[in-house]
User: Fold these one by one.
Assistant:
Number 1:
Amino acid sequence: MTATTWGAAKLSVMVRGASLVAAVLAAGSAHAQDPGSFPSRNITLVVPFAAGGPPDAIARVVAAGLGKSLGKPVIVENKPGASTSIASTYVARSAPDGHTLMAVDISFAVTPYIVANLGVDPLKDFKPVGLSAKSVFTLIASPSLPTPTVAEFVKLTKEKGEDVKIGHTGIGTTPHLAAVTFMRATGTAPLLVPYRAVAEATTNVLAGHISAVFSAASTAVGLAKERKAHVLGVTGGKRMSAMPDVPTFAENGIQMKGFEDGSWYGVVAPAGTPDAIVAKLNAALNEAVHDAEAKEKLAAAGIELTSGTSPAFRDFIAAQHTYWGETLHAAGVKPE
């Protein structure tokens, strides 16, 4: 090969190499998102639960508000199953460009301690966008029990031990977390009885088959009005306007640490999502949860729309993750 031929071949290789680099960079830029042009298409808000229930209801309110603020439709997509891992794995592996988000609740911090080999890490694989809501929980006791106050219920539980039965809907579910927190706060040891659904557990409370169940306020409000059960206490820092006669647990000296406000809800994005896009999403989220009509719509169910910054939500999730790890370990719960 002559020097001229060699030089031409070398130049050809360099050109092809430069073209390849350019192609790779172009492909990469196709997945990137200029924060200034975000959003450039519809946004998907993945819900790791079936339609219906507080997580889904809150997600739909949030989606409507985000869409209104950002100027692009936000589509709610339910991906239930496998203890939320189907949804969380899908979102964690999505492009970190702000167009795929996940609606989370308290289970987001708890599931790693319930499910072995979950496949995702809530602290490493996601970037918190912001808190969206809090949902108070109530303690509903059987009308057959002579315990119209939470103090009397605690006294009875200390005297009777496992003869007092509290229903729940499975290890790591919100009713179970509430019960474990209550036991830890009061030094009691009732028997925890699992059911397939809160409605089933509540039916058994009303029939006197079990002593009590922790449930969302929406269930308790109706029972209190019809005087079908004793509603002994409510989480949160103030009484509910729908049940003004029901005291908070704190009023009775019961500090529901880690569960002070009941369950919580928020929005996360895949790790690696640019800070500028997260900031834009957070601003839109905060605007959405301050909508007066949305607040009124959910208040009757004991759900309070709230807001905050992305860093504050990150710190909150980390604190919840640590707390529930310690609490569930102390309760003898191991990942399965």
Number 2:
Amino acid sequence: MVPHNDPTLLFTNAGMNQFKDVFLGLEKRDYVRATSAQKCVRAGGKHNDLENVGFTNRHHTFFEMLGNFSFGDYFKKDAIGFAWELITSPSWFAIEKNKLYVTIFNGEGGVPRDGEAHDLWVALGVAKDRIFEAGLKDNFWQMGDTGPCGPCSEIYYDMGARASDQGHADCAFPCDCGRYVEIWNLVFMQFDRDGSGKLNPLPKPSIDTGMGLERVTAVLQDVVSNYETDLFVPLIERAAELTGTSLTRELEKEAHAKSAASLRVIADHSRAATFLISDGVLPANDGRGYVLRKIIRRGIRHGRLLGYKQPFFFMMARKVVKLMQDAYPELLEHEERIAETINREEERFANTIDKGMQELDDDLAVLRGKGSDLYPGEQAFKLYDTFGLPADFIQDTLRDAGLKFDQAGFDRAMTEQRERARASWKGAAKQTANPAYQQLPKSEFEGYRQTRSEGCEVLAIIRDGQGVPGLAAGEEGEVILDHTPFYAESGGQVGDRGVFYSDELNSVVAEVRGCYSPVQGVRAHLVTAKSAPSSRTESKSPPYENRVGWGTHSSGDPTNQGGWALRVGDKVDAVVDTDIREATTRNHTATHLLHAGLREILGKHVKQAGSLVAPAHLRFDFSHFTAVEDEELQDIEDMINKEVLRNLRVETIADVPIDVAVNEYHAMALFGEKYGDRVRVVKIGDFSTELCGGTHTAATGEIGLIKILKEGSVSSGVRRVEAVTGEGSLAHFRKDHELEKVVSGFASPTLAQKARKDGAPSVEEVHASPAEALKAELEKKDAEIKRLSRELDQARMKSASSSVASAGENIQEVRGVKVLAHRVDNLERGQMRTLVDQLRDKIGSGVVVLGSATDGNVSLIVGVTKDLTSRIQAGKVIGPVAQKVGGKGGGRPDLAEAGGKDAAGLDAALGLVYGVVEGLLE
């Protein structure tokens, strides 16, 4: 449910997502038609059904989308025929034809009416009075502002009057009261919208259809609501059992009764949470993890609305696994991880709820102090969004407190948050593949067996998105060869770098800075052209206007062929930089060992969540709940380096059927990768087996040594390890040795006594390691600093206490109240509080104000004896005094504190105290 390599989507939300690149022309498959049952989530970004779930018959966060697809194969006639046969034939769904309606596109916005679809439906026997027409909003589909698009035809089912949300007894199609339910949408992709908005006919029209499993199940089981099908009833029953809700009593109430809705929410959200966690998503404060957290917490909250406050949602996940494991066996494999993740989130949410209630109580106290009766909507939304307090819960609390709720402010904050979420996941819309690449043949990749390929023909040159005939010296562009040894960036491994040599002169004509695949099978080399060869064989290439990639560009006159360093039709020798390739290869094989080592030491729940394989280092992201302990990292490092020392053969097995790779070789698939029907397996003894298209060492010994540099958090539930191999490890050890020399000069290794088993020191002594010596030296210095700090604090306190004796000189009576303002520099807040207590005790009844300046910063503290707090509050005294030193503060009626930045104004501030107190006593 996490879209692969698609930044435009938060979650997979339709069956066609996995085929998007095929429709866009960016990818080619080995097949031209497909059917699928796709797991989907609509709970964030543009497609967000979250707030409706539980309160309607057909909204869900998680659902399964059935679909059939044609990639330039069958089109409208067959798509309509297949659909009608499946749903009406007695051999298949056998749905009554007299309960079905269909819609077609009516022709709007300069797009013609889909008369062809109308006639095809009629030809199948659909009565004309059951065919309705709709406009762009409902019956025209497009992937984005540009790209494939076309009219669509929808099939609706009449659920009967019982399904009407508005109590309609005899309404007609297309009434939107809930009686008529869309069960299948057929999209006819026949246009390609360009940047100007023009619709151009697609050379190979395609088909994309979608049928919600939950909806068609309700139709086939003859129930009104999806929640009454066997997909949900067992989950609702389990939710009722766990929360102690009387299922019969609650579900006999009206459809939107709160308790019934809460049971539906719990059932639906448990499915979404279970599948999302199984697919590698973990609760977090942003992105996909934030949506998952909201789903889990919304489910927990509805349990609380039913009166149940103990953890239960993780047990709902176990029920989902039991119910769905036949169709999705991976759920059983991940069951413990799913349950643990949800249980942790339940515990965390319980804490958050308590904090939210405390925050709300504090806010209410402030409101009462201000004399206001309106609770700000923005503040309510913060409690809702950050602490998970339900809006109705907040409203009930405010009602009990006699306060009003700012609904408009809350709605405004909610809208702003949704806009931010939508913007953060809007991404860049994918475009149809550049025509300059679309018509090119596949580049034959020879890089698994060699790093130099001779006589490579330049099929095309792309510069600034256009095909050009050549590149002059210094110009940058993308070069497509008919065969190449250059690895294109994929699977976390960076693209190769190197050079192109001219075929006839063996001089460098281009530096290759990288390589990637703009469309499947085509490898684009990112090049900078060098100086042109001194001579050329002009008869080598056919006329430029007949070459692939021809176009106009500012590179110069196409007739001036000698001015180009590289041109279409040239033959070059493509040479990969072997030092960079070998360093990258070492890191890639090390990544496989690291992945296997992490799973062995930390557990089988560890899954790859991203990687980078570069020449200088490797980076590996993986799912794990907590930080990896130093001892665990050392165990992992030891384990994988033993595999390096064993010099195991790294076996690559090409062209393996995907089911054989997974079921017989037990190969692991990598995060973010797409796999075809046949794959490449990389096997390292019995230690690691993965699906991988990258380059690898022939044996593990070639890695040299793997050194883990650091481990840290990427996001909630995702950790990252960085490491180096080969020469990178050597460079790291050299740096460590240099550091060791510095440490030895600062903290010479001292003799450390070895302890006997009984704990008593032995006579035998050993030298401490540099790290141990440095640690001992730092601890010694730290202890010395703490001792000196204590002595300094004691001296300051003694000096300040002695000044208390003379403080009486500053006591003034203000309207019968003793007031003392006194300066005590270089004291910490805690010491100042102690002095205030001493002075309050000394004067018996009155106000004490102390000020201290330390390193240019000012601290102020006001103490009022208990007998005076009804007349004088410490917070009201400290406010105007703090302003004099550029600060502010607050506190309790008997004690308040403040800080400031203007030490020069401290004396004036203390002098102001007497007047402030007098003003309060008036």
